Amino acid sequence: NGESQFGPIPWFGDRDDTYAFSFYLRPNLNFFARIDEFLTMVAWPTGPDSCEHHGYILFPEEWFDQPDFEDRAQAYGDWLAVFLQEDVDMVGSLQRGLKAERFEPGPMVALEKPIHHMLNHHLDRVFASDE
Prior knowledge:
There is one protein chain. By secondary structure, the chain is of the alpha+beta class. The chain contains 2 helices and 4 strands, in the order ββββαα. The N and C termini lie far apart (53 Å). Strands 1-2-3-4 form a 4-stranded antiparallel sheet, with no helix packed on it. It has helices at residues 69-98, 113-127; strands at residues 20-25, 29-34, 37-47, 50-58. A hairpin with a 2-residue loop joins strand 3 (37-47) and strand 4 (50-58). The model has no long low-confidence stretch (mean pLDDT 84).
């Protein structure tokens, strides 16, 4: 159900239970954190229409000695698999739609302007001339 199995990670100090953040390191590394877990996701292209995603949940070393650590850590993995399956289904549907005969590329919706801005920033940096 997404509830904490361990409590707050010591590194996050006295932040409240709703604390979370994420950031992206191009070209393929994402970091996500909640008050009780740190998750890395790496995407590796495997072809023009496919890729593999690998996720790693990181916990403080001292938690490994807690009773039932393996079972509680597995609960995170199980929850993550269910949670991410929603994205897998959605992204797969989008990928299939791109091949539709009547698909016409167009601008992103207004609510996604920050995403558009970020993607253009990355493209500008990748393809910028050295002049």
